[in-house]
Amino acid sequence: MSVEEKTVHYDSPAGGWGSVRGIAEVFGKEWATPLATETLFHQNKPGGFMCTSCSWAKPANYHPFEFCENGAKATLWELTTRRCKPEFFGKHTLTELRGWSDYELEQTGRLTHPLRYDRASDRYVPCGWDEAFREIGAELQRLDPKSTVFYSSGRASLETSYLYALFARLYGHNNLPDSSNMCHETTSVALKKVIGESVGTVVFDDLSTCDAMFFFGQNTGTNSPRFLHPLQEASKRGVKIITFNPVRERGLESFTNPQSPVEMLTRKATPISAQYHQVRPGGDIAAILGLCKHVFAADDAAKARGTRVLDVDFIAQHTTGLDAFEAKVRATPWEEIERESGLARADIEAAGQVYVEAERVCAFYGMGLTQHVHGFENVAMVVNLLLLKGNIGRDGTGVSPVRGHSNVQGQRTVGISEKPELVPLDRIAAQFGFEPPREKGVNTVEACEGILKGTIKAFIGLGGNFVRAIPDQDRMEKAWTGMRLTVQVATKLNRSHLVNGEIAYLLPCLGRTEEDKQAGGPQAVSVEDTFSCIYGSKGRRTPASDFLKSEVAIVAGLAKATLAPNPKVTWDAWVGDYGLIRDEIAKTYVEEFHDFNDRLWIPGGFYRGNSARERIWKTESGKATFTAPEVMSAAGFGDADGRYRLITMRSNDQFNTTIYGYSDRLRGIEGTRDVLLMNPAEIRRAGLTEGQVVSLVSDAGDGITREVTGLTVTPFSLPDGCLGAYYPEMNPLMALSHHDIQSGTPAAKSVPVRIKPEAGGPKADRCEPTRHSAHPI
């Protein structure tokens, strides 16, 4: 593969013809058939299948094409005609494959057969399902359950997740980390503490009734592009959209609707953000505190006129902690706010005035808030702002963490949690006739620490690309091989499948687009979106191989091979009819999932409820809680000469660790992922030049050497002291200890690093870079 590397300035809006071209390019690369196009027409619609990409809502009043560029890419990626058969592994050792890029591994196609790792030949070899289940079960029986980890990615359905959590607890542990630990665990911890619910309070209809939206650290154009439609509608009806983000993202600047012939033909774009503030990484605490400071000042002026800006009745009835919070805000000087946020007082006050004048405000945020050492404080500050004017628990208001992976929120809802207090264990005990373990399990960071120490002996991965997604990748890969057993359930080959324990299996599963035929006929699964709505999902396409099993069947097969029989645990019946699993879910989670099967196909999904939206606060005090921040920067480290704050980010041509190609169109970067983004003034101050090749070195201060080489210095609009580069390539720079203090979420949005120029000339010359070289498939 010859890769032409270039960096250009991109002036076009999000959406538009660029989005259409992006879909067409993936269609060609995946050798997709015409049936793939037919499948897209059923994506995110009642009776169809739910996208495996983001968790954005599937509205009852859907568009003709209810998919975005990235959603289409995810579907075409799954429906590829490429196949990764056992013969492929006969030609390539795992040592060789570890030299391939993420993209090249993805391009080998769909896995077709269950595989066992043969250490003597360093290759995967085909095996039977019964053999795989039998040996994995035997190994798990020999191990202490608490020395094992059952990880799950956000793609697994509610039915699979429920059985997986039940399997873990019947086996004897709560070691159930999932991808939420790496992104929105900060949300789960912070919102639970301050409003009593671990998820957001906004529902889809609130988007059409609010009159202001505040965005913090969320890249809609790449991470949840279908959100652009309601944002465009909101902008057109005069809603003020205020954005705080270190990176200027096209999706929050302007948008052309690809489903509007007029807009496409005229290339008309709708402006999205009325104000766009490039806050310093880690500076959101200070920025939001500045907003609150302006609100208090406006309230002081209003009191002099006999009115109020604060919702005093709401605050008196529904909140606690205002006095300490207000004292902190009033005592913090503007000079400190400006220094820590990187923003001018006048700009913060202009944003604050929008909040003051708005009657109904929704606040949205992403991993730009959660992935910091003090991410908890970031999230709590968003809630503080909303509480000042009673902007939680009314139509058109609320806090909305925009979740990433398709069902990552739903997995937590049905029991995927290392925290036993969040799971109705007494009900589960009565339902299935056993005593569930009550000890806290390990989260992602704790699982990694256990692998490094040698106390974790087995890892079962239900989807995902764990080894590639976690911090300290180089250290973790070396420790990974010390485990006794590693098992990966997957649809395509990725980096995690190439680093194995002593005994290892790679088990291929059905994709969500594919028909799932069981003893009871074709089956459906379900997922939960970011607004807490539940949808049915049914695949239509012929499976990629006759040897694939569903995730439900794989979990049941592993459980049957591991556990003693239990008359109340009917694995075979559940595999034959997923409706029986939904009946069990409804017994465990009565309030959320009553009449589950009857409500499965409601257009727009059914809402599982949210007490904070009803102003019922399940907190320690019984009220929503104002929290005074203990720090003014979320970064967790101070400034020093030569130290930068690195933001890791996704390109427009990827989803999580899945790399669809080398185009980051919305940032104007084509043909490479080996870039280091800096603002031009910062490049000059560092004595660097555009196109120079440099390395990044971790500045974690723990004595461990962490370095990523071969990055091309690229001018980009970023705040001073800030660098940008791609995830997951930068994960080796992240210390495992660098995470949110209260939730353990890796702090990937403010990584302390230094720049080291590389020897051998200042300019990059990589039109055919070895890192992206072609390999025979």
Would you mind describing this structure in some detail?
Belongs to the prokaryotic molybdopterin-containing oxidoreductase family. The chain has 30 helices and 34 strands. With 777 residues, it is an alpha/beta fold. Strands 6-5-18-17-16-7 form a six-stranded mixed β-sheet. β28 and β29 form a beta hairpin. α1 runs parallel beside α3. It is globular, with a radius of gyration of 25 Å.
Q: Tell me about the largest β-sheet.
A: 6 strands, mixed
- Helix coverage percent: 25-40%
User: What is the domain tally?
Assistant: 3
| Cα end-to-end separation | 12 Å
- Helices, by number, come to 30
Kindly list the characteristics that best describe this protein:
single chain, 777 residues, alpha/beta, Rossmann fold, Dimethylsulfoxide Reductase, domain 2, Barwin-like endoglucanases, 3 domains, six-stranded mixed β-sheet, disordered C terminus, molybdopterin cofactor binding
In short:
The chain has 777 residues and is of the alpha/beta class. It folds into three domains: 83-179 and 407-613, Rossmann fold; 185-405, 3-Layer(aba) Sandwich (Dimethylsulfoxide Reductase, domain 2), CATH 3.40.228.10; 643-757, Barwin-like endoglucanases (Beta Barrel).
What is the secondary structure topology, with strand pairs?
Layout (H helix, E strand, L loop, with lengths): L5 E2 L6 E2 H14 L4 H7 L28 H10 L4 E2 L1 H6 L2 H4 L4 H5 L3 E2 L3 E4 L4 E4 L2 H14 L5 E5 L5 H14 L13 H11 L16 E5 L3 H4 L4 H9 L3 E5 L9 E3 L4 H6 L3 E2 L3 E3 L6 H21 L7 H7 E2 L1 H10 L2 H8 L3 H13 L3 E5 L1 H4 L4 H14 L9 E4 L6 H6 L11 H8 L11 H10 L4 E5 L3 H4 L3 H8 L4 E6 L12 E6 L8 E2 L2 E2 L2 E4 L4 E5 L13 H12 L8 H6 L1 H11 L1 H4 L2 H4 L6 E2 L16 E2 L18 E6 L4 E2 L2 E2 L3 E2 L4 E2 L4 E4 L1 H6 L7 E6 L8 E9 L6 E5 L24 E7 L20
Parallel strand pairs: 2-10, 3-4, 7-16, 8-9, 8-14, 9-12, 13-24, 14-15, 16-17, 17-18, 25-33, 30-32
Antiparallel strand pairs: 1-29, 5-6, 5-18, 10-11, 19-20, 21-22, 22-23, 25-34, 26-27, 28-29, 31-32, 31-34
Helix pairs in contact: 1-3, 7-25, 8-25, 9-19, 13-16, 13-17, 13-19, 22-24
